[in-house]
Structure formats: structure tokens, C-alpha cells
Amino acid sequence: MRHISILVPVGEVSVVNIEGTFQIFSEVNTLLQAMGKNPLFDVQLIGISKDVSQRNGRFSISPDLLIHEVSKTDLIIIPAIFGDWQKNSELNAAFFPWIATQYAKGAEIVSLCIAAFFLAKTGLLNGKQCATHWRFANEFRNMFPEVKLMDDKIMTEDSGIFSSGGAYSWLNLIIYLVEKYAGRDVAILISKAFMIDIDRHSQSPFIIFSGQKDHEDHLIKEAQEFIEKNYTEKITVDDLASRFAIGRRNFERRFKKATCNTVMEYVQRVKIEAAKMKLEKGGENVNEVMYAIGYSDIKAFRSTFKKITGLSPANYKNKYTKMAAA
Description:
Blueprint: E1 2-8, H1 15-34, E2 41-47, E3 52-54, E4 59-61, E5 65-66, E6 75-78, H2 85-91, H3 95-104, E7 108-111, H4 115-120, E8 129-130, H5 137-143, E9 148-149, E10 155-158, E11 161-164, H6 170-182, H7 184-193, H8 218-229, H9 237-243, H10 248-259, H11 263-281, H12 286-292, H13 298-309, H14 313-325
Helix pairs in contact: 1-6, 6-7, 11-14
């Protein structure tokens, strides 16, 4: 039987991650037993404190065991932990050597949403792929440049370490793990029972691009603001470098360092974000939106739109205008 350790960190954590994960793996056992098979999982809550208060005392979680009582586990699941990353690390420092030791013994590790920040503190993510909530992608990159962040992915798997993207995409990762350990047929049944879309792989359609301005390079901030105000016009790197009286190569280097995008990637993302907002309103067709944001080549527009959002403009329009109507 595979031992699953769902961590109960100190601080403000996602109670939904903890209870939902426990419920899904427990339901797999129930389903297997109903089919005359043996249960697969021994699921326990593991902590560093006997009682963990949550949401200003609204909830209290009592772990089954403390970490020193678990010498060997097979799968460690880290729920999202909210608030100050540094403070969370200090409050839960005892987990780090235990996680590293268990990984060295062969345990697999799962981080859900922004738990990637917590896991990255162990150093185990260095050189590996990882996902987290798209809202915190730039902050994560700045804090952990050694990690290969895949900010468009709903889930990643690399060398026995799994991670999920933003918010409720953790459900897709848990279903993926059910499929990995219990088989596709069981995963399909569980996905139907909990009404989870089993084959969703990208968080790109949900990303809202608001510009990466959490940096101190004021010249680059001015360039970003210029792009955002003039995105319908033709903008080139040479024009921007000239406008801000800086050499092209130096400008490109500083822009990439500050925003994690090349200049033209940034221009494209600003244009596509404007297109998304227009398509969501539903008043204009795809061609009208294309011209309104400064594109004239429908093939180029569709290609760029799909690259950034994971959907064609028409599919994006249908998806969100239907949701708005509903």
C-alpha cells in the first residue's frame, strides 16, 4: 500500500487542498473495495504541531502524525501556503530536512499551486520544471532563477516531483496521480464522481496579463507604459530605444531582465490581452478585434493569440461569451 503524507503546515494554508486531496484518495480506496480489490493508499495528515489553527481560529486541523513519527513515506503533498513566503519558511523550517530526506529515500513530492515557493526553498526544484499560479510567475522567477518555471502549464512532472498551476488546477494534478497509481479507468470514474475535467493541461486561457512592473528600472517602466498606451501603433525596438535615448542592445537586455519578456513579446502580450477583453465582451467579430489592436494579418494574429492563450480567437470568444451569458 502506498503511504501518502499530506502536510499540514503552520500558517494560513489551503484547507481545501488538504481536505480535497484526502477525500479523493480515500474515495479511490472506497471505489476499489467496491470492485472487490484491495485499497491502494494509506492517507495521513502529517504536521510539526499537534493542532494547527486556520483562518483566525475558524478551523483547526489535527495531523495524524508528526514528522518525526514518519520514517518512510511514498508521496508527500504540500498544500498552498498563503502570506509572506519568508515567514512561512521560518515557521515551517522543520519540514525542509524531512522532505529532502524522504525524497532521497525515494518519496515523490507534490506541490499544489503556490506551495511551489515552499518546495523551492528546499533546493529540490533547482534545475527541474515546475508550475505555480500564473499571478506569481514573475515573483517566483526572481526568487528562484535556478528553477525552470513553466507558467503556462497546469501541471509538471520532473524527476519524481510534481507541481500544479493556479487555484483549482490542483484537482487535475490529483486526478493525474490517481491515473498514475490506479490506472486510467479508475481516474475516469473518479473524475466523473467529482466532475473534474480530466484532460485539461494548460492555464494559458485563464492568464490575465497586467504587465510585469515589480522592478526598479524606471526607464523600462516608462517604456512599458508607452507600449500599453500605444499598442495599436507599429512599435519597433529601434523606435523605443531611440525614444528613451538608450542603445538597442542595452535596452533589450534591461527590458528582458526587468520583465522576463523580450520587447516584442511584451508588445504581443499587451495586444493579445486587449484582444481578449474585446472578445469577452462579444460585440465585435474576430476580424474587427484583430484590426482594432493593430494586426492586419489574420494568420499572424491567430498564431500569436493561440500561442499565448492556448485557444484560437474564435474558441476564446465562444468560451467566454457563453460563460458571460450563463
